[in-house]
Amino acid sequence: MVEEKVYISDLSYPIEEKKCLVYRIFGQVPARLVLYLLSWSGFLVSFMMRNDINIAIVAMVKEQPREIIKNATIEYCYVIEDSNSSIAPVDYGGTLDWSSKVQSYILSSFYWAYIISQLVGGLVTQKIGTKRVFGYAQLATALCSISIPWASETHFGIVIGLRFVQGFASGLTWPAMYALVGHWIPVPERSRFMSSFQGFSIGIGITYPLCGFLIAHLGWRSVFYTTGSIGILWCLIWYLLAFDSPETHPRISLREQQYIKENTIVSYESAKAQSVPWKEIFKSLPAWSIGITTFGRIWVHYIFIVSGPTYMKSILGFNIEKNGLLSGAPFICSYVASVLFCYIADKLVTKNYMSLTNVRKLMTASSQVLPGLLVLLISYLGCDIELVLVVWFTAVTLITAAYAGAMANIVDIAPNFAGPVLAFAQTIHMTASFLSPLVAFHMLEGQEQNMSAWRNVFYITAFISSSTYIVYQIWGTGEVQSWNYNKSDLPIPEQEELINQNTSIKPSIAKNDIQSEKLANASTIEI
């Protein structure tokens, strides 16, 4: 069902209707601020539900007998015999007899479907809008999360199935939210709005310590009941407050709607009417370079997200609460860092210190080449736990520079088709999200306490994260691609001039520089 328009396209006055006191009070809150909070909290909740099992599985599974590998040195950083030590392994009542291989399938099955649903998300959102796609996806993920305790005790195959459904649903969320930005958020505000996507960093940062606390005091089943219930509650709030466009919002002020229209080029209705140039996207080297380079960034990122808790348990010997706290804390830092990288990227472009293309490449190199080298360094620091954690935190924090780099570049090259291009790029790079844990668990099977085995994992991670960046260095660009515009949808000079005036761009700047600055403001930080 298509939502009734409260405002018509010529900015006439709203349809008269009686409004209650609550509406009159909260109607003063800008609709864009509400949308920001919904986006921020939505990704926070989404990543809570997708990552809860990463640490819960540490407590779900029985302690496996340690296999002694000939000619190998066991280099864990705790004393097994000292059962009273705060960092010695603790039995949290794990009853599931899952091998390392089964655990890797369960953790990676989420991402099998995640990459499949990217293109689906881009297409469906173009047709039916973000509200329904994002909302239904979150609801499906929440219901699956609540079902995992029952499925775990029935058969691991059902857990894999539930994780597959969660992955497919979560894969719809990114293209859906990307598509919303173009017709809701004015150009001067897009950098700030895109920081709402970093709610996922807070989600990870909260989930790990929360899960550690719940497991230690209430058992691992409480983890899934908690995150699933939060997800369902969020869906209710989303249903009541989210709308696909300013024209369908029941309480937006005429002044706010006019401001949005004057500072956005693509409207909701025109975006729905456009045909996606899939052939040109598939032939676009800049689009491919974004997907390939981000493959390397995702690989190293998921070593920290998925394999990190296992490393902290098996090598550093942290108990579940300390494990959760230290696994999650770097991602809280990441949120703060993402705002800083956003600010730096904005200044470098708007002050003409660097071109938009060079800023994107600088941030991309910082987000994957440096973390790749740092993760390798961790394996050579031995049991100097304080130094290991400093390097660990630094690497995870640097990864967020990608949101002012290659991922922001999606809107640079195709502002009219950000959702479909994101879907294309994520179909490529999110394969790393399941290959990374699969390769790690395969290499570590039976050798989780072997520092040398982890060093091999980190060598591969460093190579992949660094080598994939070369593709972006060669073919990455900040220029809008010709296929971004349909023949009948070329940019309107008067509207572009108005946008440039609103963003306070100096008239003396050349036309190409104006376009570059406008796009820099439009896309400095994405996911």
Could you give the topology of this structure?
Layout: H1 21-26, H2 31-60, H3 100-128, H4 130-154, H5 156-171, H6 173-184, H7 190-194, H8 199-218, H9 221-241, H10 254-262, H11 268-273, H12 278-283, H13 285-314, H14 320-350, H15 356-378, H16 385-399, H17 409-413, H18 418-429, H19 431-444, H20 451-467, H21 469-475, H22 493-502, H23 511-523
Helix pairs in contact: 2-4, 2-8, 2-9, 2-13, 3-4, 3-5, 3-6, 3-18, 3-19, 4-5, 4-6, 4-9, 6-18, 8-14, 13-14, 13-15, 13-18, 13-19, 13-20, 13-21, 14-15, 14-16, 14-23, 15-16, 15-20, 19-20
Mean pLDDT over the full residue set: 78
Q: Could you tell me the radius of gyration in angstroms?
A: 24 Å
Q: Termini, distance in Å? A: 30 Å
| Number of separate strands | 0
**Annotated CATH architecture:** Up-down Bundle
**Would you tell me the structural class of the helices and strands?**
mainly alpha
- The CATH superfamily name is MFS general substrate transporter like domains
- Poorly predicted tracts of residues: 1-17, 68-72, 80-91, 492-527
Shape: globular
The major sheet is characterized as: none
Count of helical segments?
23
Helix content: 55-70%
| SSE succession | HHHHHHHHHHHHHHHHHHHHHHH
